[in-house]
Amino acid sequence: MADMHPSETAHPTRHAALLAWVDDIATLTTPRDIQWCDGSEAEWHRLSQQLVDAGTLVRLAADKRPNSFYARSDPRDVARVESRTFICSEKAEDAGATNNWRDPAETRADMNRLFAGSMTGRTMYVVPFCMGPLGSPNSVIGVELTDSPYVVLSMRIMARMGKPALDMLGNDGFFVPCIHSVGMPLTEGVADVAWPCNDEKWIVHYPETREIWSYGSGYGGNALLGKKCLALRIASVMARDDGWLAEHMLILKITGPDGASHNIAAAFPSACGKTNMAMLECALPGWTVETIGDDIAWMRVGQDGRLYAVNPEAGFFGVAPGTGPSTNRNAVDTLHANAIFTNTALTADGDVWWEGLTKTAPEGLTDWQGKPFDPANGTPAAHPNARFAVPASQCPSIAAEWDDPAGVPITAILFGGRRATAVPLVTEAYDWNHGVYLAANIASEGTAAAEGKVGALRRDPFAMLPFCGYDMCQYFAHWIETARKAPNGGANLPKIFLVNWFRKDANGKFLWPGFGDNARVLKWVVERSTGQTDAIDSPIGRLPAPGALDLGGLDLDEAALTELLGVDVELWKEEAAGNARDLAALGTIPAELAEQQARLEERLTV
Ligand code: TSX
Ligand code: MN
Question: Looking at residues 262-291, what average pLDDT do you find?
Fold first, then answer.
C-alpha cells in the first residue's frame, strides 16, 4: 500500500482512458489524494461538514433553510472573467473575431507549467457528470477533476453527478475532460484560506479535442465546468459538427384554456430577467406557464421536422439580487432548502438576504464581505453577482417533462434585449432567415455604470457572444443551414420573434408592465404560431394586428400601446445602419444575412 500512487486506490470504473487521464493529471498536479465522487448523500454530508469546519461554508438555520449553505468568495473572485476566457482552436479564424484565441500548442505548454503541482496538499476530486437526462444518447458526459470541494457540492446540484453518470459512461464511452484548479497549492508552510483562488486566471477551451482547463477561480461559470464551458462553448462546437443547436436559452411551457400546450425557447442578454421569464407567474386567467430550463437549451430537429429541446442542466445557478416575491415568486419558493448561496448577505438568525428579497433589509445583516451592513453607506449587502445554486426539481413551476430524454417540441423561439427605444414589444420574423437576422442583432442598453456608458448599446448576438466556442459568422451560417436541411423545407420549425419588455416613453417610464403580463405576448406568439390570430406587416417584421394582443384587465391606454408597437422609420434607418456596421465587425457574414440586411433597408425606403 505504501508505494501506491494515489490513483491506484480503489476506483469505481474500468474505463481505461479515464483511468489513464486521471493518473496523468494527478502526476501533473500532485494532489495529496484522489477521491472519486459518487454523488451520494453520505458524500454530500461528509464534504459539506468538511467545508463548514474549514470556514468555507456557513450552515444556514435548519428551521429556515434546511440542508443549505452560505459561502463568501474572495472579493477578487466574484464573476466570470471573459478577458481570461480562451478558445484554442487550431486556426485563429475558427475562434472568430469575438473570442480570445490562443495557439493550442503554446497554451498546452503554458497549462502544463501552470498546473504543475497546483493541487499540492489538496484532494483531487474526480467528478463524473452528465449534461442532459441520464440514459439519453444525446446527453454528454463530462468528468471534472477539481481541487475544490465547493465545486463538487455545486456540481451535484447543477448536473447529474456521480455514480449514475459514471455508469452511463461505461468502459469506453466518450467524455469531455474538464480540469479545474483553484491555483493555490498548499506547499510547505502555506495555510489554507476559506476561498482559495489565484489572481492569475485562465478559462481555456480546446474545441477540436473537446477539452476544458480552468485555473485560478472557484466561482460560478469559471469553475462549474459543466455549464458555460461544456454545455455552451464546447457543446456549440459539437452541435455545429453534428447538426444540432446548443443555445443560451430558457425553455418554458405554456398551456391555454383549450388545454393545448406549447413550448417556447428564449434567448436574452444578461440583466433582462431570463430566469424570471422561465418561472413566469402567468397574469392571464386560464393560462399557465411552467418551467423546463432557465439558461441552456440543446435542440435537435426531429424526424417530423420539429425542433426538440432539452435542458442539459439539473439546477439553477441564478443571480440572487432582484429575485423576490414580486419579481419571481417561484424562484424564492424553489430556494426553501438544499441550496448553496454565494456572496449574498447573512442574517443575524442564520439565513440569507439580498437586495430585492424584501423591501427593507433586516437588522443585523453581515454583508458579502463579512462586514456589518450599514444601509446608510450606499453599498449593497449582497454582491450584485451573488448567486444561488438549487435543484431544478424543487421549482414549484417545474414541468413534468423537464427531464424527458425526448425533449419538448418547440413552437416558437424568442430573442430579446433591453431597449428603451426603437424596438417594439413584439415582432414576428417573416421567415427563419429573417429570424436569424433579428437574433444576430439583439442588444441591450447598459444599466450599471460598471458596464461602461449607461445607455450604450451592447450587442449580444443570440445572447451567445461570451458562450459560442467558434466564429459567430460560422454560427449564423449553422443556424441557416439547420433550416435548409430540415424536413419539409424547415416548415415545421418554430417561428422566430423579437421581444422587448423595456421600451420607455418620453418621460423615461416603462411602457409595458412586464413580468406576469409578458404572458400576453406569449399568447399572441402561440396564436400566431398556430394560425389563430392576425399580424400586420411592418418594415422590421410582423406586428400584432389591432386588437390581437390580449390586454384584458390591463390598464394600458391606446397611446401607450401605439408607442409600444410603433416603428419609427427614420430611427430604424439608423438602426439598420448600426446593424450593418456591427455585423461587419464580426467578420464575413453569410450571404443570407447580407440579403436580409438589404431587404430591411429596402423595406425602410419604400
Ligand atoms: O425580469 C424582468 N422581466 C421579465 C419577467 C418575467 N424584469 C426585471 C429586470 C431584469 C433583471 C423586468 N423589468 C421586466 C420583465 O418583464 N420589465 C421590467 C421593467 C419594469 C419594471 C417595473 C415595472 C414595470 C416594468 N413596474 C413597477 O415597478 C410597478
Ligand atoms: Mn446564462
Answer: 98
Nearest to 282 by CA among 512, 502, 522, 511: 522
Q: Say which DSSP state 120 is in.
A: B
d(CA 1, CA 9): 9
Residue 438 scores a pLDDT above 80 = yes
Q: With contact defined as beta carbons under 8 Å apart, do 565 and 425 qualify? A: yes
Is 272 a catalytic site residue? yes
* Rounded mean pLDDT, 471-477: 98
Whether 486 contacts 422, CB under 8 Å? no
Q: Is the CB of 322 under 6 A from ligand 1?
A: yes
User: Is 513 close to ligand 1, i.e. is its CB under 6 Å away?
Assistant: yes
H helix intervals, 266-383? 274-278, 329-334
**Measured CA distances, 374 to 73, 347, 355, 367, 378 (Å):** 20, 13, 13, 9, 8
pLDDT confidence tier of residue 10, bands split at 50, 70 and 90: confident
Measured between alpha carbons, how far is residue 198 from residues 70, 118, 336 in Å? 21, 11, 33
How many residues can be counted in the chain? 606
Residues by chain with Cβ below 5 Å of ion ligand 2: 295
Residue-wise pLDDT for 452-468, tens only, equals: 566 799 999 999 999 99
**Tens of pLDDT, residues 343-373:** 999 999 999 999 999 999 999 999 999 999 9
Q: What is the pLDDT of residue 2?
A: 44
- Cα–Cα–Cα angle for 178, 180, 185, nearest 5°? 150
Q: What pLDDT sits at residue 492?
A: 98
pLDDT (0 to 100) of residue 5: 52
Q: Which residues contact 131 (CB under 8 A, 6 or more apart)?
A: 139, 140, 141, 142, 159, 226, 230, 231, 235, 312, 313
Distance CA 198, CA 191 (A): 14
Which ligand 1 atom is the nearest neighbour of the CA of 510?
A: 25
Q: Identify the nearest ligand to the CA of 397 by its number.
A: 1
> What is the layout of strands, in order, in the sheet containing 340-342?
57-59, 69-71, 340-342, 387-391, 315-319
Place of cell 451573488: 386
- 199's CB contacts (< 8 A; 6+ apart) are 76, 216
